[in-house]
Specification:
The protein is mainly beta and 140 residues long. It has one domain: Sandwich (Immunoglobulin-like). Helices cover 6% and strands 45% of the residues. The strands form three sheets. Strands 3, 4, 7, 8, 10, 11 and 12 form a seven-stranded antiparallel sheet that branches. A three-stranded antiparallel sheet has the order 5-6-9, with no helix packed on it. 19% of the residues are buried.
Length: 140
C-alpha cells in the first residue's frame, strides 16, 4: 500500500518508500528500561541497509560502519559536529572510496580524538548502492 497526496487515498504498489528505513536502538537489556537507556545514551541509528555506530572510549570516539553484499560496499563515512543552538553543522572527518576503485569494503573501524570545540557529533555512512545510515547525536 502507498499513500497519495494529500494523504487521503491509499493505493497498492510494490514500489513505495514507506517502511524502507529502520530505526535501531542499541540496548543491553530487552526491556523498557533498556530501551530508555539506549535513547538516553544516543545509541540510535536510522538505516535503510548499512549500519554505523559511535561510542566514547576515554578521550577517543570509536566509529564502526558495516554493510553487507546486499546493501553494497561502504562508499563514504562522515563525522559531523555541532554546537547546541547553532543552525549549521561542520564536517569533522571524512573517509571515502574513489569511484571505480577496486577496494571492496563492507567493514570499517576508526578512532578519532574527541573534538574540543563541539557539543555533539554524529556519523553518516553511504554505500555504493545508495543506501544510508545515520546515528543520533552523541553529546559530549
Amino acid at each position: 500500500m502507498g499513500v497519495k497526496t494529500p494523504l487521503i487515498s491509499l493505493y497498492r504498489s510494490r514500489n513505495h518508500i514507506l517502511g524502507k528505513a529502520r530505526t535501531l536502538v542499541q540496548s543491553e537489556h530487552h526491556s523498557a528500561e533498556g530501551l530508555r537507556d539506549g535513547f538516553r545514551q544516543a545509541r540510535i541509528v536510522i538505516s535503510d541497509g548499512p549500519f554505523v555506530t559511535l561510542g566514547q572510549q576515554g578521550k577517543y570516539i570509536k566509529i564502526k560502519a558495516l554493510s553487507t553484499i546486499d546493501y553494497g560496499n561502504l562508499l563514504s563515512l562522515q563525522i559531523v559536529t555541532g554546537k547546541k543552538g547553532d543552525r549549521q553543522e561542520c564536517l569533522l572527518k571524512s573517509w571515502g572510496v574513489a569511484k571505480g576503485s577496486e577496494l571492496k569494503n563492507i567493514h570499517l573501524e576508526e578512532s578519532i580524538d574527541i573534538p574540543s570545540n563541539a557539543d555533539y557529533l554524529r556519523a553518516e555512512v553511504t554505500s555504493d548502492t545508495g543506501h544510508h545510515a545515520l546515528t543520533g547525536a552523541l553529546w559530549l
